[in-house]
Write a structure and sequence with these properties.
alpha/beta, Aconitase, domain 3, five-stranded parallel sheet, 15 helices, binds 3-isopropylmalic acid, binds iron/sulfur cluster, IPM_dehydratase_rel_enz, amino-acid biosynthesis, metal ion binding, iron
């Protein structure tokens, strides 16, 4: 096998040597659907008239989008999926409160180097932080995977993005990510895999790499991949759910594009309404009033994100309503034991159940028409957190600093 990480993963999972632009039928290593999409997937699965899923050990079903159920309709749909879990003997089912799917899969050791992991959720590219090929599909494709364990793909071409240098104080993985999305544009990497290289990427924590790969889809990419290294292996030690073989691009691998960036050029960034690539340095929009601050999501709901917010909020009081949602139960427990939880609660932050929370405007923190939320999430589409609302995206530090002042604020003022 030769080529890029994606070519190697598709070669292994299709059982032949394949290259970019080849069409393959691939064997899926793990399939994920959550409470929002499992309903549709199992409906299509039942319509196919198949009685048993391909492998109940390889299907992972975390409940995260609307937990605890916010409406009678959601409760009924969740009941339906729980029945499917029992009937099919699906072993990896996680009740609401365990965490967001893209946090739960890595924590439980399913996001592994070299694996092909398909989720019925667009941010399944997060698993690329561990050297996996992770991507999202629709519910009917997921039903096909439930039935056969296979799905067809066009092997993507790969863009090589290198970020060298050191991030400045007050500049985090989220700022780097927003900067790259701004430079690339929302469709600049459509149907490509993006491999990330360079000293700034190597310096990112595992959590930071998850932030980066999580937003690969916001450039249109099929996947975003960081080649696994010692940090990856340390995270997986004692956690990996299966054996794995890391794969790396060969020195002569063919990339369709190569981009170089200098980490020192990056200032704290904000994505302005209503597109994720509408990115500006925080200073350019500083002073914009906000009504709500939100720290959480699969992009930035991890312990280091809450810790950064706590560093800024310690001993102070927020000026606007501020919501924090730990990405998982495990993050919540660590926030409690480290004192971060107490610091944030004392500063006036409201905590809600680990899960997606208000990220996609379904419950728990919807904003009114004309209101503005500054969020650590990955999307700021029109109406995403409530009809007629405006969503800005920033790092946990920017959101915490802005929560203190009630307007978009450069976090360096508080560091
Ligand atoms: C509900 C789900 C299908 C959706 C996605 O695929 O991304 C959601 O997680 C989101 O972030 O908008
Ligand atoms: S936290 Fe937000 S972006 Fe992530 S899976 Fe949930 S709804 Fe989607």
């Amino acid at each position: 096998m030769q080529g890029t990480i994606s070519e190697k993963i598709f070669s292994r999972t299709s059982g032949k040597n394949v290259s970019a632009n080849d069409f393959v039928s691939a064997n899926i290593d793990y399939a994920m659907a959550h409470d929002g999409t499992s309903v549709l997937a199992l409906h299509s699965f039942r319509e196919m008239g198949i009685s048993k899923v391909w492998d109940p050990e390889k299907i992972i079903l975390p409940f995260d989008h609307l937990v605890p159920a916010a409406t009678e309709a959601a409760a009924a749909l969740q009941k339906n999926t729980r029945e499917f879990v029992r009937e099919q003997g699906i072993s990896h089912f996680y009740e609401g409160g365990e965490g967001i799917c893209h946090q739960v899969l890595p924590e439980k050791g399913f996001a592994l180097p070299g694996k092909l992991i398909i989720g019925a959720d667009s941010h399944s590219c997060t698993y690329g932080a561990f050297g996996a090929f992770g991507t999202g599909v629709g519910a009917t494709d997921m039903a096909e995977i439930f039935a056969s364990g296979k799905l067809w793909f066009k092997v993507p071409e790969t863009i090589k993005m290198t970020v060298d240098g050191t991030l400045k104080k007050g500049v985090y993985a989220k700022d780097l990510t927003l900067y790259l999305v701004g430079k690339t544009g929302i469709s600049g990497a459509t149907y490509k895999a993006v491999e990330f290289y360079g000293s700034a990427i190597a310096d990112l924590s595992v959590a930071g790499r998850m932030t980066l790969c999580n937003m690969a889809i916001e450039m249109g990419a099929k996947s975003g991949i960081v080649p696994p290294d010692d940090k990856t292996f340390a995270f997986l030690k004692g956690r990996a759910a299966a054996d794995y073989t890391p794969v790396y691009s060969d020195p002569d691998a063919v990339f369709c594009r190569e981009k170089y960036y200098d980490a020192a050029d990056i200032e704290p960034q904000v994505a302005c309404p209503h597109e994720v690539d509408n990115v500006e340095p925080v200073l350019k929009v500083a002073g914009t009033p906000i009504d709500q601050a939100f720290i959480g999501t699969c992009t930035n709901g991890r312990l280091e994100d809450l810790a950064t917010a706590a560093e800024i909020l310690k001993g102070k009081t927020v000026k606007v309503r501020t919501i924090a949602t730990p990405a998982s139960r495990s993050v919540l427990l660590e926030a409690v034991s480290s004192g971060i939880f107490e610091t944030l609660v004392k500063a006036g932050v409201s905590f809600i159940t680990p899960g997606c929370g208000p990220c996609l405007g379904a419950h728990q923190g919807i904003i009114a028409e004309g209101e503005t939320c500054l969020s650590t999430a990955n999307r700021n589409f029109r109406g995403r957190m409530g009809k007629g609302g405006n969503v800005f995206l920033g790092s946990p530090a920017t959101v915490a600093a802005s929560a203190l002042t009630g307007e978009i604020t450069d976090p360096r003022e508080f560091l």
